[in-house]
Amino acid sequence: xxxxxxxxxxxxxxxxxxxxxxxxxxxxxxxxxxxxxxxxxxxxxxxxxxxxxxxxxxxxxxxxxxxxxxxxxxxxxxxxxxxxxxxxxxxxxxxxxxxxxxxxxxxxxxxxxxxxxxxxxxxxxxxxxxxxxxxxxxxxxxxxxxxxxxxxx
Length: 153
Known about the structure:
Blueprint: H1 13-25, E1 36-41, E2 44-50, H2 60-63, H3 66-69, H4 86-96, E3 105-110, H5 114-123, E4 127-132, H6 137-146, E5 149-152
Parallel strand pairs: 3-4, 4-5
Antiparallel strand pairs: 1-2, 1-3
Helix pairs in contact: 5-6
């Protein structure tokens, strides 16, 4: 009689998509923090994004980190960075390819900042699952006010 193989436990959908976000984060070109984001609707990946410089521009890996050079604390002065955030890149990639993210779920390795939170709200994303990251009190407040659910995984 054939021996039965032990089948590993399948990840839940949330674990599956968060694992994808973790893999996407490995493409990041940020020296300080690697972040990955995946936009999902109906258990289908719509778009992914990681933090890094815009297409065609030199990366912080090559130039060094402006924020580090000026001792800017994490979560402050977002405009003083060459890179886009993972959430921004995921939304932009969806738009670039004509994919609506209305009612999507965002899986992100870090909690969104205030800038990303505003974009998430206006993009119509309905919920966010986060793995980790710094908290931005204002981002948390506006996401709650807009009815965007945020859950840790």
